[in-house]
Structure formats: C-alpha cells, structure tokens
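Data availability (excerpt). All sequences and predicted token strings are deposited with the supplementary files. A representative entry, Transmembrane protein 242, is shown inline so that the format can be inspected without opening the archive.
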Amino acid sequence: MSEEKKILSDTPRPERLSYNTKATLFLTSVGGAAALAAFGATLMSVRREDAAAFDKGMVSTREVPESGVQLATRALKWGSLYAVCGVAAISAGIWFLSGASNMAEFKEKMGSILPRIPRNNPPQSRTEFEGLTDLLNYLANDFSKKKTQDKSDS
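Structure token line:
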C-alpha cells in the first residue's frame, strides 16, 4: 500500500472529507482557469488576425441585431449546458442500468463487467528519462526496435 493511501485510510472521516473537498476545489479551479485562458487566447488570436472585423462584431447594427460577442457568449453558455447535462445523463444512465445502490456496489459491478487492466510490474520497458529528448529518442529508435523483435520472436 502506498504511503499516501495509508495516510488517507488512517485519517478520520471528517478530515478525509476536508481533503477531498480541497482536492475537488483545486482541480475545478485549475480546470476553470485553463478554460478561461484557452477562451481568452482564442479571442486574442481572432482579434489579431482581423481587428476590423472583430471590432465590427463587438457592436450590434441594424443589419445584424446581435453582436458577435453576444452570439459567442450565448453559444458558450448553451454548449457548456449541453456538455454538463450530457455527461450527467450518461453517468446517471449507467448508474441506473447497473442497479447499484451505493458507490461500493457500483465499483464492484463495474469491476466485474469491464476487462481487467494487466499490471506492468516489473515494467517491461524504460520508465525513467533524463528529458524530453531522451524520451523522444527512445520512442523513435529503441521502442520500435523492441516491438519488431517481439513480433519476430513470436
């Protein structure tokens, strides 16, 4: 058992809930910040590409009663709503089809239905690399050689 799992299993339930809440908030904030950064970067690249058209889309006109910003904001809201509702519906559907009444029962049922992932212990290939260049060289040269040798051996 890893040290982190051992620490979490030994801690009282309220402290574990506090840890889980903090972890959830952290991951949610990181995801939200990444989404905002990506959206902002996209807007800035569009503005740099054609500033006149971008500025024209900021203000609604008689020909176009809705500005581009309003249209994009509305599309983002509906897209987010559809994504969240879709994932929730799929998750709830799988939960109800499994017939589970709690999370432990759901985990057990899914474990019996889904295929097992084989353990890679000890690892069959390299797991430590000095840097990105070392990893890319390994993938381009050594790893492909090993795969062809394994196929010729079988």
